Amino acid sequence: MAVTQPDAAALLGALLASEDDLLLVVQRGEITHASAAVERRLGGAAPGRDVASLFHEESREKLAAALAHEAPAAWELQVCREGEGQEPVSFLVVPAADGSRILLGRAPARDEAVRIKEAAITLTTALADIARELATKGAELEAARAGLEELGRHRDELLSIVSHDLKASLHAIRLQGSLIEHAETPPTAAQRATIAGRLLRNVDRMTSLISDILDAALADAGELRIEPQRFSLGDVVAEVVDTVALIAADAGVQLRRAAAGAAVVDGDARRLYQVVLNLVENAIRHSPRGAEVLIALEAQGARVRCSVEDGGPGIAPEERAAVFERFQRRGGRAGRAGLGLYIARRIVALHGGSIWVEAGARGGARFVFEIPAPGGAGGDRVWT
């Protein structure tokens, strides 16, 4: 259907009155007509105004190309919204018969633009939160994977250590049994005592190894318990020294005790015996023949301190904290599966105390633990 001249005039009038459509009629770069939307959105477009002033400088070269184009075409141009910066608008640029150019475009409604901007900000924030959460979960998964790998290595190491230590004790027991079986004459009383001592020590070693494994599992599960009573820690030390006397003699190591004060504590005598025994056995293992292991007790007001110092090479400062971790075998030498010091730390902690290792006075390692004295700091704690 052909559009008559009155129809065209009516259409132009409607577009010029539009609050949504951006209509500009341009002649030789100057505005001749502008719609109400241009007046409202772009800060006015009086006749005779340079049309380029309505557009951002980045779009002015493109605007010039659009005005020079001889065929209708769509152009995306950046308009300058008054007080609000630039905004992209797609214009249909139509050349008229009189050489003028008609630019018709529609900018997003203000409310719609605000809504889109807010939605974009919300979406960006949500995506950033998701990215951070994914990064956190990724780090957690990586840490869990590394932990599982380390646990697998510890498991393999533990199996290797346990099998080695058990085999060593069983081999020693078998050897003593073989000596008895193939003896040409009945053993003397002294020989029987020697053989019996070796058998019992190896049985005790296997029992201790199994107990360490079970106690470590209880500690990991939070099920390690103590049964407190009042006693002298000096009596526990004396019992330990009596227990390891033959081991020390075989190793050529001298045991010496020193005490200052009553060293009375409220605690689990069996568990603290376990701690002292572990420290003394470690000290014997890491001391050369002819060396001395010193076990010292000292009551210091609200605390009771026990220390065991060996005659070995000592422990470097950067390695001291690690010796109380699981499966740590000091110097790589045979021990009790690397669990003894880990269990000792947990037992001392249950007594409200602390344990550490430091340099000894003679260059060796000195293991020290402190627990509260009765009525001292922590002495009235609730036991578990």
Task: Please outline the helices and strands.
Blueprint: H1 5-17, E1 21-27, E2 30-34, H2 36-41, H3 60-68, E3 73-81, E4 85-95, E5 101-106, H4 110-181, H5 189-220, E6 229-232, H6 233-251, E7 254-260, E8 264-267, H7 269-285, E9 292-300, E10 303-309, H8 340-350, E11 354-359, E12 365-372
Parallel strand pairs: 7-9
Antiparallel strand pairs: 1-2, 1-5, 3-4, 4-5, 6-8, 9-10, 10-12, 11-12
Please outline what is shown here.
It is built from 8 helices and 12 strands. By secondary structure, the chain is of the alpha+beta class.
Q: What best-fitting shape do the alpha-carbon axes yield?
A: rod-shaped
Tell me the CATH topology of the largest domain: Heat Shock Protein 90
C-alpha termini separation? 97 Å
Largest sheet features: 5 strands, antiparallel
Sheet-strand content, in percent, reads: 15-25%
Describe the structure.
The protein is α+β, with helices and mostly antiparallel strands. It has 3 domains: 5-107, Beta-Lactamase; 114-219, Signal transduction histidine kinase, dimerisation/phosphotransfer (DHp) domain (Helix Hairpins); 225-372, Heat Shock Protein 90. The chain is built from 8 helices and 12 strands. The protein has helices spanning 5-17, 36-41, 60-68, 110-181, 189-220, 233-251, 269-285, 340-350; strands at 21-27, 30-34, 73-81, 85-95, 101-106, 229-232, 254-260, 264-267, 292-300, 303-309, 354-359, 365-372. The chain has a 5-stranded antiparallel beta sheet. The model is unreliable at 377-384 (pLDDT under 50).
